[in-house]
Amino acid sequence: MKAAILLDAHSMIIEDVPVPEPGEGEVLLKAHSCGICGTDMEFYENGAYNPHWTLGHECSATVEKLGPGVKGWQPGERVVVNDLFSCGECDFCKRGLESLCANAANLGIHWPGAFAEYTKVPQRALFRLPENVSMRDGALIPTLAVGHHVIKQAHLEPDLKTLIIGAGPVGLSVLAALKIAGVREVVVSDINEKSRRIAKQLGASAVIDPTTEDVPERLEALLGAQPRVVFEAVGKPGTILESMDTVERGGTVVIVGNCFEEITVNPITWILKEIRIHASQGTASDDFTTTIGWMETGRIDATAFITRTISLDELPGVMQELSAQKEDIKVIVNI
Length: 335
Ligand SMILES: [Zn+2]
Ligand SMILES: [Zn+2]
Fold this sequence. Notes:
By secondary structure, this protein is an alpha/beta fold. Helix content is 29%, strand content 25%. It folds into two domains: 2-145 and 283-334, Medium-chain alcohol dehydrogenases, catalytic domain (Quinone Oxidoreductase, Chain A, domain 1); 153-279, Rossmann fold.
């Protein structure tokens, strides 16, 4: 089968590799569409955990072949994959906290990914895709599920004043989730003009360009107060500290962006404001069932998120291009 192989950082080729064989409890999928995620870009730029690796985890597919012991699925069924494979048996999974599973593994990180004609996944990771949701839009569901997972960390009410810092795919999925939850005031701050435009399209009540505007001043003018909940979806020390500074006293900061850098901070500012700090990563089953429902009932403007659709053959070139520019929101690979 044809697969995109990451040989090393910045070195991806298309190669013929053997089709994987599904083991006990596993299902072989024929991949249809797979989104390029920030995580894929991290690995593309720094190298994957394993040499000669296939990335890709935001995938819609059809069931091709069932491994031993798999029941309840038929070849040809249309599916979307929860790329965070939880075990279903550990204490966290039993409490419904699958994103914290003690035995978690990820498609495209620990298991070979879906930038390939076929990929195998545990049966537990599969969710049925409704007939009226296209394969392309289905590949957006893992991103939307992240947004749903994030907003569970905040106590939402319609008159809540909120700020999202960063309008990449995750920030925009938080925006979409907040709008569906009925939150009226969602201000979005991003340095990129295109991201701000898409945020407006997806229902942001206002957008801010932090490179030319005074953010606290603009927030005061727009909201008449500081935001009660700030979602940090950039993952940089500067924007994490900005979230803490910007949030209202007694408010909540939800850190969504993956930050690998150290932060020096004097916590007294947080203490005096009595802020709550939550962090969010990954997804659980209910994030998938809910967002599949959103897609099915036409509550998501998928076209706003998807800035480009490409073929698998184009992927190596596009990955190189994406590592140099940040203009695209979500690129979908048609396998
Ligand atoms: Zn992803
Ligand atoms: Zn578990």
